[in-house]
Amino acid sequence: MLCASLTGNNSMRISLIGAGRVATHLAQAFKVKHQIIDIYSRSFDKTEQLAQQVNASACAQIEEMQSDVDLLIIAVSDQSIATVIQELTGHFPNCLIVHTSGSTHLNVLAQYHERVGVFYPLQTFSLERAVDWNATPLFVEAKQHPDLEILQVLAEQFSQRVYCYDSAQRLSLHLAAVFACNFTNYCYDIAKQVVDAEQVDFSLLYPLILETAQKATQNDPMQMQTGPAMRGDQNIMSMHTHMLEHADRQDLSQVYALMSDQILKRHH
């Protein structure tokens, strides 16, 4: 459900752990209305670069970070979150600490700190592209209700789509996002490999890609399915498989067979 609308204009003192894609976009967005105090990551070169962009201090060690901040954001890889929160134990006694992961449970933080939460943007991030924060769904969760309200206010400063989802709901979204984004992009990569092998312009597929995405976001994707597998056209599927095997691409042939089989089962 949508979070209750809250208003708030108080500037926060915010620090970040991480200097990758998510941390960079968040820091750049936060600096418009809030003060970025410290940046720390395991790569000091990246730390310095991001700190300069948002007028923050670059820290070489966690111990160098100021503890009197309002919000500490852990924007690191999922597998590193547990290690980071353990390293923070006792250093930020009164601070609200959040992670930005879609798949990491709130309890990973809660077992080491009292004031914890989640600030998860459902988006794909690249350093080369700007983020449309207004249209990006933001998901907040917190151990304590007052902290949830703080995160709601913060999120509503950036997006019109703010949701209060628990860890299980957020995990389902993250899994769905892997299929909708990561696996789909890999299919684009496969498509480019196929046409590149015959020196065919990949951009010829752009209108098809955009139309497919538009149909999937405006209709039930199941109802929009097309193609030889949906039709049960074994002749075309055999031809495609033979092409891939003849090109010594057994890996792509296996992907083609698996996906075609799943489409057949779904529609027949």
TrEMBL record:
Gene Ontology MF term list: oxidoreductase activity
Domain DUF2520 residues, every copy: 137-262
Keyword Oxidoreductase in record: yes
Superkingdom of source: Bacteria
Listed InterPro entries: 6-PGluconate_DH-like_C_sf (IPR008927), DUF2520 (IPR018931), NAD(P)-bd_dom_sf (IPR036291), OxRdtase/DH_put_Rossmann_dom (IPR019665), TM1727-like_C_sf (IPR037108)
Pfam family membership, one: DUF2520
Keyword list, A-Z: Oxidoreductase
Domain Putative oxidoreductase/dehydrogenase Rossmann-like span(s) in chain numbering: 12-115
Protein name: DUF2520 domain-containing protein
Organism: Acinetobacter lanii
